[in-house]
Write a structure and sequence with these properties.
By secondary structure, the chain is mainly beta. About 5% of the residues lie in helices and about 40% in strands. The protein contains 1 helix and 17 strands. The strands form 3 sheets. Strands 1, 3, 4, 6, 13, 14, 15 and 17 form an 8-stranded antiparallel β-sheet that branches. Strands 2-5-16-7-10-11-12 form a 7-stranded antiparallel β-sheet, with no helix packed on it. The protein has a two-stranded antiparallel ribbon with strand order 8-9. A hairpin with a 2-residue loop joins strand 14 and strand 15. The N terminus is likely disordered.
Length: about 250
Amino acid sequence: MNTPVIDPTKGLAIGTGSDTPIIAAYTFDANANDVSGNAYNATPVNSPDFTAKDRFGQSSKAVELTAASNQYCEIAVATHEFVVAEVKTVTGWFKTSVNIIQTIASFGNTERIGFSRTRYPWAIISLTNIGILRYGYLSGGTAYNIAVTTDTFNDGIWHFFSATFGEYIRNNITGFSLNIDGAIVQLNQEPAVLSIKNDIRGKTTIGRYSGAAIVLPFDGKLDNIRIYNRALSQYENDNLFRETYN
């Protein structure tokens, strides 16, 4: 039996010519390295399990994180700073069955600049303690839930997500979209408060909130976390959701 291989025409190769929007991609094939070619490798913290099976049953093709051990992967500021103007879409797969508030991915860093200025994480993809998926950001210490699902997803089943920040082209609408399992579940207009977020930058964490005081670690499995520099179309999101092995 041949070893399955992800279709190379999907995910990493979205776009053609100069339109190659992939910034970083983490397939968690026994490590947390960036496979996009941009070398934004993540650092595993507290020994995540890279032998986990993915949604196709392939071992060492996903990462399993335990909240009690505060396991996560981090791209430090010294390695690269993902900024609002750069990151537009985050996609991936998650699987969890626990009832806790937990974070899939977080961008930014709680960091005091000089004597008065504080930077907060600008984008957080998380689940509530009853399994509702949320996509939002912080501004001046206030949390804004941009997109919130009505369904719950802590059912022990693999789910695809695509969260688009501040850019989504459909009938000339610019806003925020949250796509779950290939379908748009919420599309919101961009709030004016975002004008103060354009310079927020800092570390990226996968499987934990990047704030200093609150960590909200993920408990379950993550796979194929990808970061893009533009909004993905519904067709592109659908291709990622239906991505299979050859």
